[in-house]
Specification:
Keywords: Signal. This is Lipoprotein. There is one protein chain. The chain has about 240 residues and is α+β, with helices and mostly antiparallel strands. The chain has one domain. It contains three helices and 15 strands. Strands 3, 4, 5, 6, 7, 8 and 9 form a seven-stranded antiparallel beta sheet that branches. The chain is globular. The termini are far apart.
Length: about 240
């Protein structure tokens, strides 16, 4: 009798394990009722319900696949993204990101890095502004990506000290505002920390934000990168040149 009971308990345990495995494999995404992929789980877990913070990885900027690790690393990437006006869906611009590369010297105020600065090269082109080339790296405070070099028809070549920020990285909260001591003070405000499809929308203001392209709202999405923009101090007929 004891042997029979042991056999029964064994098969019951096997059955329970089988049901548990089936339940895990058949998890579905709340947004589309499709099976949840490993990467979707990464983005789900990026937001902490206890601290109300979200970890923003570099991959949200580049549009590359994210492994879910809460670390800020410039990994090899070659990607392109199309960003459009969110209201009209028009005035789209394609942005290409490659890298990382390394500078020969560190002529910025970024202290955490050595003599060679790893950076991404981003390029795009508009009818009005022509070709634009920018170098992005992790800023001195290690909570954002910042331009350290920019070349465009409007002003030629420019270099930056690395104290500002162009894109938030690391842990942020909804509505949070941070100000950076760049040559012209820069401010980032989180508009929507974890929107539909885990997209991030934030406001970027440089200086007083009164001139063209000094007060913009950007949206970045997983696996896509830069998807939309809006000027706060321009009419909808303006042409973006970031």
């Amino acid at each position: 009798m004891k042997i029979i009971n042991s056999i029964v308990r064994f098969y019951v345990l096997v059955f329970i394990i089988f049901l548990s495995a089936c339940n895990t494999n058949n998890q579905t995404s709340k947004k589309n009722n499709l099976p949840i992929t490993e990467e979707e789980n990464h983005w789900d877990k990026a937001y902490n319900n206890t601290t109300k913070e979200r970890f923003i990885p570099v991959e949200l900027f580049t549009g590359a696949k994210w492994d879910g690790k809460h670390e800020l690393v410039l990994k090899e990437v070659s990607s392109s993204a199309k960003a459009c006006d969110p209201i009209t869906g028009k005035r789209c611009t394609t942005y290409t990101i490659t890298g990382p590369y390394k500078t020969k010297i560190n002529d910025t105020k970024i202290e955490w890095v050595g003599n060679e600065i790893p950076y991404y090269r981003r390029t795009f082109s508009t009818k009005r502004g022509g070709d634009v080339e920018s170098f992005f790296t992790i800023n001195n405070s290690r909570d954002g990506l910042v331009r350290i070099y920019d070349k465009r028809k409007k002003w030629g070549e420019k270099t930056f000290n690395g104290l500002g920020s162009k894109f938030p990285l690391g842990y942020w909260k909804q509505g949070e505002i941070r100000v950076y001591p760049s040559r012209r003070p820069t401010r980032i405000e989180i508009i929507e920390l974890d929107g539909p499809n885990h997209c991030l929308t934030f406001r970027w203001v440089v200086g007083q934000g009164k001139e063209r392209n000094q007060d913009n709202i950007y949206t970045f999405c997983p696996d896509s990168g830069f998807t939309s923009f809006r000027h706060n101090n321009q009419s909808t007929d303006s042409i973006k040149q970031d």
